[in-house]
Design a protein that fits this description.
single chain, mainly alpha, 0% strand
C-alpha cells in the first residue's frame, strides 16, 4: 500500500493569543481532509516566529507592504 504525505500551512495576520486560537487554525487546515479515507499515521503541528509576551501598552508596529 503506497504512503503519501500531505502538508498544509497557514500564516496568520496577528499573533495567536490563546490555545483556542491555535486549535481553530489547525481545525481549518484539517477540515478539507476529514474524515480521512485511510487513517492518519502521524500528525504534526509546528509554530514559528514565537515571541515572549511583553507588558508594553502599544502594539508592535507593522510595515505597510
Amino acid at each position: 500500500m503506497p504512503t503519501f504525505q500531505i502538508t498544509r500551512s497557514k500564516t496568520v495576520a496577528a499573533p495567536l493569543q490563546t490555545i483556542g486560537d491555535l486549535e481553530e487554525v489547525v481545525g481549518l487546515l484539517l477540515a478539507p481532509i476529514f474524515p480521512p479515507r485511510r487513517g492518519i499515521r502521524l500528525l504534526g503541528v509546528s509554530l514559528s516566529s514565537l515571541e515572549r509576551q511583553t507588558l508594553q501598552t502599544e502594539p508592535q508596529l507593522r510595515l505597510a507592504l
